[in-house]
Design brief:
The complex is a heterodimer of chains A (about 130) and B (about 400). Chain A has about 130 residues and is of the alpha/beta class. In chain A, about 15% of the residues lie in helices and about 25% in strands. Chain A is globular. By secondary structure, chain B is an alpha/beta fold. The chains are: A alpha/beta (about 130), B alpha/beta (about 400).
Chain lengths: ~130, ~400
């Protein structure tokens, strides 16, 4: 699948997919990488070392710092794949240096799929 | 995007590591949003200042940047901090919170940022001109600069505004372009608006309805800058309105008007409903005015309202350090304190840890504060006019 480079880099890993938007400020714990938003479909899941897949970000602009914090604390996802990356997530992944691609039809991806993300080229592929 | 030779050097690290990282962020954002070039900015205003909001990740990020000694290229102001930077002890702020907050402030200071923690930079010495390009990030200040002054800024996040300040540039897209500043929805106001809180209630309704569109108001006959400040702040909080036009009042209303727009109407009944919706509690533990930061006139008005009264429960009014200085001189602060109130500078109820200071129900006259307090500070809200809330706290 071909999308657009938001933040360069390459990564391979297992997908963790959310069908609903994800907010990082108040939504993800920067110390543990656990999703803590009450009632969110990923509540209790850990983003660490995953290929984190969600349609788009939501919520406070402080979310950028949380993404940076995840990386600094060693609990960041290996890469992020979005339908549409808005500024909060874009700023966060660029500062943190996390590979990120947008413009991907994430409906085709399920949690547990093995993915290969080449954010330099803006591509996401399944590893068979 | 077209980059000049000088800008290429910024991007490939010839101007240092911090510039490279910050400029890369601006170039990426510009690419994402289809900017054709970078444009110089006249000033910047950086959000993400309160330790309560940004926590350790933000604190560490800012200290990392500051340790490399970058210097901002333009006049740069700060958003409110989590506490009054001078009187925090008197106001019973937790000491460990204060310690982290002061580290954040120190990091900004080392970058050459002016330590005026306010959401109303335009009242405190950072006044843009019509048409000037800016990189501001406090949502109510963005709305004021774009709408009331006619300057041009997108809704920046804390880091992108900081990057713009350090580079002196911002990508040319969105509200920097004339064609993106045209009205998108016509809002006919039939309600009669009297108080600051009426404008806040209207803003709350319109923001919910129009989300991030550009409203064009008709039927607002007159409005002070304080009232426009309240209107814009509420629309930016309940929706994501960064620019609005008011027929006969704001500078771009004539040039950015469009015919044939979808129209929504607001009457007195709608305004009443808004008051009802925003009221989620009763008997406030504390009343806090000054969201956005109070102007000198608002502080003066509170001093007059409190004349001869003895408060049973506290009232704060939040403002910038500059306004407080003049309020002291005018005797407003004394008069407010004599009645049992406080003039608090550098901070506000949304970014201060009021839920940790024993308060459960807060009274406000601000549509923006009424939107944010339940979520950010776990407060029940009493929403009303300044006079009504002063009356309430004196009973």
């Amino acid at each position: 699948m071909k999308g657009k480079t938001i933040s360069p880099g390459k990564a391979e890993g297992v997908a963790l997919v959310s069908r609903e938007p994800l907010g990082f400020y108040g939504g993800v714990d920067a110390k543990t990488g656990k999703v803590m938003e009450e009632g969110h479909e990923l509540q209790g899941e850990c983003v660490r070392d995953k290929i984190l897949v969600f349609p788009k970000g939501k919520g406070s602009t402080v979310g950028s710092y949380i993404i940076y914090g995840l990386k600094k604390n060693g609990v960041a996802p290996k890469a992020i794949v979005n339908e549409e990356t808005e500024t909060i997530v874009a700023t966060g992944v660029i500062l943190a240096g996390i590979p990120c691609v947008d413009g991907i039809d994430i409906g085709k991806i399920k949690t547990g799929d093995k993915l290969k993300v080449d954010a330099d080229e803006g591509t996401v592929d399944f590893e068979r | 995007m077209y980059l000049t030779k000088e800008q290429e050097k910024m991007l490939n690290g010839e101007k240092g590591k911090v510039i490279e990282k910050m400029f890369r962020l601006l170039v990426r954002l510009g690419d994402i949003y289809g900017a054709d070039q970078m444009i110089p900015i006249g000033s910047a205003q950086v959000s993400g200042v309160s330790f309560k909001s940004i926590g350790f990740p933000g604190l560490e990020f800012l200290e990392d940047i500051a340790s490399k000694n970058p210097e901002v290229k333009v006049l740069t102001f700060l958003n409110p901090a989590g506490m009054d930077l001078e009187d925090w002890k008197k106001l019973n702020y937790p000491a460990d919170f204060a310690k982290h907050q002061l580290r954040i402030i120190d990091a900004f200071k080392r970058m050459g940022i002016v330590i005026t923690s306010t959401c109303t930079p335009y009242l405190a010495g950072n006044l843009p001109r019509f048409g000037e390009h800016l990189a501001w990030s406090e949502s109510s200040a963005i709305s004021f600069a774009n709408s009331v002054i006619g300057a041009r800024t997108n809704r920046e996040g804390g880091p992108s505004a900081l990057a713009a300040a350090i580079c002196g540039l911002t990508p040319n897209y969105g509200l920097h372009l004339s064609e993106k500043r045209k009205a998108q929805v016509r809002v006919k106001v039939n309600a009669s608006l009297k108080t600051f809180s009426d404008f806040g209630a209207l803003g709350y309704l319109v923001g919910m309805e129009v989300k991030n569109k550009i409203p064009y108001f008709v039927g607002i006959k007159n409005a002070s800058t304080d009232q426009l400040k309240a209107l814009g702040a509420a629309m930016a909080a309940s929706g994501a309105v960064a620019l609005y036009h008011v027929e006969g009042i704001t500078p771009e209303a004539k040039t950015m008007m469009r015919e044939g727009l979808e129209q929504i109407e607001f009457g007195d009944k709608d305004l009443e409903d808004a008051y009802q919706k925003l009221n989620t509690g009763e008997k406030p533990d504390i009343v806090i005015f000054g969201c956005p930061h109070a102007s000198l006139q608002e502080i003066g008005r509170l001093a007059s309202e409190l004349e001869g009264k003895k408060l049973k429960r506290p009232i704060w009014i939040c403002t910038s350090r500059m306004m407080k200085e003049v309020a002291n001189r005018m005797g407003y602060t004394d008069r407010i304190e004599r009645a049992g109130g406080k003039v608090v500078a550098d901070t506000c109820m949304v970014v201060a840890p009021i839920e940790k200071m024993g308060y459960k129900t807060t009274g406000v006259n601000s549509g923006k504060a009424a939107c944010y307090l339940p979520g950010f500070c776990k407060q029940k809200v009493v929403f009303g006019s300044m006079s009504d809330l002063v009356e309430e706290q004196s009973k």
